[in-house]
Amino acid sequence: MVALSGAVACADTLPDKAALRPEAANVEIISEPPNREVYEPAGEVRAQIIGRDNAASLREAFNILRNQAAAKGATFVAVEEVSSSAAWDFSGRTVVTLVGTAYKTK
């Protein structure tokens, strides 16, 4: 699901980069939940990042999701919501928001 949103967190407090932690390197981003017989939800993960390049901002936001999922012991993140909107500071930057569910082996 892709949506455009008008309400955005304060642009000054959002990161523009997110390093992928080594333990998150094996976490995969997927669009549908994995097999429920093998995997169970580990919890919700959320990311918000600001940038000028939407593709780069998406990659950075995925890093945040993967880091959060790894911290929950998960190996997959099913992305459920993707949105982007102009930053309120009129800087020409875009805020990308992702919401998903992390999944781990049962």
Short description:
With 106 residues, the protein is α/β, with parallel strands linked by helices. The protein is built from one helix and five strands; from the N terminus they run βββαββ.
Describe this entry's structure for a reader.
The chain has 106 residues and is α/β, with parallel strands linked by helices. The chain has a single domain (26-105), classed as Hypothetical protein apc22750. Chain B (Translation Initiation Factor IF3, 2-Layer Sandwich), CATH 3.30.110. The chain has one helix and five strands, in the order βββαββ. Strands 1, 2, 3, 4 and 5 form a five-stranded mixed β-sheet that branches. The model is unreliable at 1-9 (pLDDT under 50).
Please give a handful of descriptors for the protein shown:
106 residues, alpha/beta, Translation Initiation Factor IF3, five-stranded mixed β-sheet, elongated
